[in-house]
Amino acid sequence: YYVGAKLILDGQPLEKAGQATERPLFPGFLSSMLMLTGQNLKITLAIIVQLAGISLYLSGREVSRFIGVFPASLYMTLMYFYIQPLIGYTLSEMLGFMLGCLASALIWRASHNLKWADLTLGLMTLLVAVSARAGAFLIFPALALWIGWIFRGERRFSLKMASGSLIVILIGFYLINAVYPLLLGVPSGSAFGNFSYALYGQIRGGTGWHSAIEELGTRDPAQVYRAALQFFLQHPISLLIGFAKAYRDFFLLGNRSIFPFGGYSWQNWLNVVLWVGLLLLFTSGLIQSVKNIRSKLSSLLIAGFVGIFLSIPFLPPIDGGSRLYASTIPFFFVIPALGLSQLTKEFEQKFTAKNDFQTATMAPRSISIILLTLTLIAPVVNYALGQKSAYTLPSCPAEQKPFAIEVHQGSYIDLVREGTARCGLVPGVCLGDFVRNNREKTTDDYYQSLLQSMESSNENLQLIPAIDLVGGKFHYFHVSHNSSRGNLSSGLVSGCAVEVLTENQSVYEVSP
Q1: Predicted structure pTM score
Q2: Cα–Cα distance between 355 and 111 in angstroms, integer?
């Protein structure tokens, strides 16, 4: 996604960024944020985290207004622990999460005031959220039915309103997921190509998305779909097994559970208590919603749950755990919060604060419009106006390759041996911290090669992720701090490097 964002800013087609072509909305949003921060990735990540926090707060205010302070506290706690493991990454879940929070706030508000402005903006924001972090798309038919009921007027149900809202959703889906990628240079049909892997794994009995690549030896979605259909015709029961496993993983205790306190195991009694408690609150909230289904908010909560529930077989937790639901998770965690409201009802009047309804409504509207602009409009403009910088290349020895890259503050790290220089604050990362906290060093030979290089050279190292303007491909650039050249200065830099290939990465070791 970071590579895709950089390509957009250079006016280069997104098809060169691999997986980013499957979910182009987040690279587009990231390119807008990088543009605003002078391509400082450190500041960009900090702003994204703050936006996620603000969005969560605004959705929590709506829960507090309609259900109560204590339920809102539970809701925000669950939401925080859900997103916390993904903080600091350039992953699409962050955009899906923040837009999902804002969309839920607007739609919950619309269930009360019946304003089309809030409802339409909320639906469009949710549509972008679910498209950015592909998730529970079946929530939209459920919401369309809900719209037909709450806007029924004197009738029992308005088919016109339900079908009209569904048509608007379908048009929006087409524009966002078919037209928008083309405007960023994504080949037709690339978006959501990875859904074929998930479907194949489900048809194989819940074996996971990776089984398609391992068994078929291809990443071509068309071939995967054909193989999935052929296997289904021969073994139709296997699909039901895959569906059952998805529901089991979603609700039961385990690391893939939707309940977000991580590291669940049956051997830890506290994990069991938390899981049982949350499941009881969830069940209580669901029962309350069904009992009061004639109310606008309860019917909305039921619609949201049904949409998520029906989507579970197509978003199996084996493919990514609970993070697949980042864009619609507010509609799920509000249900156990509702369950808590019955237990705290008598305390609510004392602790509920008065809110400025107008201000609280304007904030989700304004921030949603800003984020939608940064996601849908600004990237297209950046791509249309972007161009590669002009550069000159030195003459390099036969065993080395010339390169030209753009180096930006806050977009690289320095691996520093303790005692040789100050470290502990990005970009200066202490080597000991890097070794202790790195999760990939046992599985990715790039990190193993990196550590071996530092041990053999006994030097500090600057790591720059960048796109080589010469070849148009992404590499990690390694620069020794103790070389005569020293750190690469910010701006356009060219030079000579030795290419070192590992299984997963291409590394350029810059010559002094």
Answers
A1: 0.89
A2: 18
